[in-house]
Amino acid sequence: MNTKRTLRMLIIAAAIGSSGAASAIHSVSDIATTALLEMERRAQEHNYQDIEVQIRPLDARLNLAACGQPLRVLPENTRRALGPVSVGVRCDGPQPWTLYVRGQVSASATVPVLAASVGRGELIGKQDVELEVRRITRDIGPIVTEIEDIIGKEARRDLVPGRTLKYADLRAPELIARGDLVTLVSGGGGVKVSMQGKAMAGGAAGDRILVTNLSSGKRIEGVIAADGSVILE
Questions:
Q1: pLDDT in tens, 67-113
Q2: In sequence order, what are the residues at sequence separation of 6 or more whose Cβ sits closer than 8 angstroms to the Cβ of residue 41?
Q3: Which pLDDT belongs to residue 7?
């Protein structure tokens, strides 16, 4: 993965003097680099690409004791990998210290976006979606990242071209409406029995609904199958 690294840091020049005191103070550059590499690692774990990290300048007045051993990164207290992030850097040496380094992380991601307007209640077709590389400064979160999860879905609201989609924007198309006559399927052991029923509610594939068996008049619950029939349990 090609990674852009933008590292801004301050060097404590006052710590480097003729007295040789520099060896007693830990390198600000080492602290910043440790935090930068950890921020990159966390973004890579989320499969982000072309990661860019900017470390906020560290206070030039820092006088942290030289650690004498590799610095340790504290466990992350948030799952956020992009945007403003903070990494705890710890020294477990004779004079222990902890410093939280702040940074800004961005990355590129290939995401599906709408190529055309889609009205509320309309089905989204393959021609309505295209892939686009975008620079992102916050975690994708609820954004739909797979085209397969968009095509064939129904828009919950009017959607405009060029925008990414959230799961809340979409719903499975309704296969059955309240009052529809439906085929009820029951049985096990390889023997299936079909009968006519009436839907007491609408729903999409996988939804559980109440139906009335027109032969017996009984209300029973079933699951809507992909073909629009209702499987009785």
A1: 989 999 999 888 889 999 999 999 999 999 999 999 999 998 888 99
A2: none
A3: 42
Percent of the chain past pLDDT 90, that is, above it, reads: 55
Beta 170-171 vs 193-199: how paired, if at all? unpaired
- pLDDT per residue over 168-201, tens digit each? 999 888 899 999 999 999 876 667 888 999 999 9
| Amino acid identity for residue 87 in this structure | V
Q: Produce one character per residue of 76-98: b if its CB has 16 or more CB atoms within 10 Å, e if not.
A: eeeebbbeebbbbbbbeeeeebe
pLDDT of 4 strictly over 70: no
| Closest of 108, 110, 144 to residue 124, by C-alpha | 144
Residue 106: predicted pLDDT: 95
Phi, psi angle pair for 210, to nearest 5°: -90, 135
Residue 217: both structure tokens together: 């008049």
Reported for 57-63, long-range contacts at CB under 8 A and 24+ positions apart, including other chains, are: 57/8, 57/9, 57/10, 58/9, 58/10, 58/28, 58/31, 58/32, 58/99, 58/101, 59/10, 60/10, 60/12, 60/14, 62/12, 62/28, 62/99, 63/12, 63/15, 63/25
